[in-house]
Amino acid sequence: EAGVAQSPRYKIIEKRQSVAFWCNPISGHATLYWYQQILGQGPKLLIQFQNNGVVDDSQLPKDRFSAERLKGVDSTLKIQPAKLEDSAVYLCASSLHTYANTGELFFGEGSRLTVL
Amino acid sequence: GESVGLHLPTLSVQEGDNSIINCAYSNSASDYFIWYKQESGKGPQFIIDIRSNMDKRQGQRVTVLLNKTVKHLSLQIAATQPGDSAVYFCAENPFGGGGGNKLTFGTGTQLKVEL
Lengths: 116, 115
What we know:
The complex is a heterodimer. Chain A is mainly beta. In chain A, 0% of the residues lie in helices and 47% in strands. Chain A has strands spanning 5-7, 10-13, 19-24, 31-37, 44-50, 53-56, 65-68, 75-79, 88-95, 106-107, 111-115. By secondary structure, chain B is an all-beta fold. Chain B contains no helices and eleven strands. Chain B is globular.
């Protein structure tokens, strides 16, 4: 079974530039998550989708971050303009269940962003 | 506020010994907990979970213990191997059943296995 695919794996940009990350979840997983993981910290949820609808985006800095999942499969996360503090690994995860409280999320390998 | 924290940032153990990684949580309403393993350059990988109606759950070489009285959980790894070297996170679902998989992760403990 293919896992969660993310690209690019690494990205270096200057502050105020824009960047986009792509995620393809495990086939059949209706729920997709974007997490931000700053070095030395645990992942923090940015946004959660169920199919193409947003379940939770309460921790997404909406002035600069946006995410979409138009067809309920792939998703993109965009940052514009980037700040130095956005340097982190952006993890995409998917799960089969949203409300069954199983909690088993399958994570991709992440996209490491460095903002100079 | 709600938080999930870990007692030790780094744990060093000898190969073959048992490892115990601890985690404290503050939200007494949380009823679901998960341990994840994250190797360098990879995403977190599910290890084991436990619901609040249990105090112990065993997997392959791993055991999770939950003490709701003191809001503490631990991950025990038997016969620790070099491949166990990683950062271990506990995660908490503070919304209980029906709240979705909105997990709150702790900071993590780095487990180093010495040969």
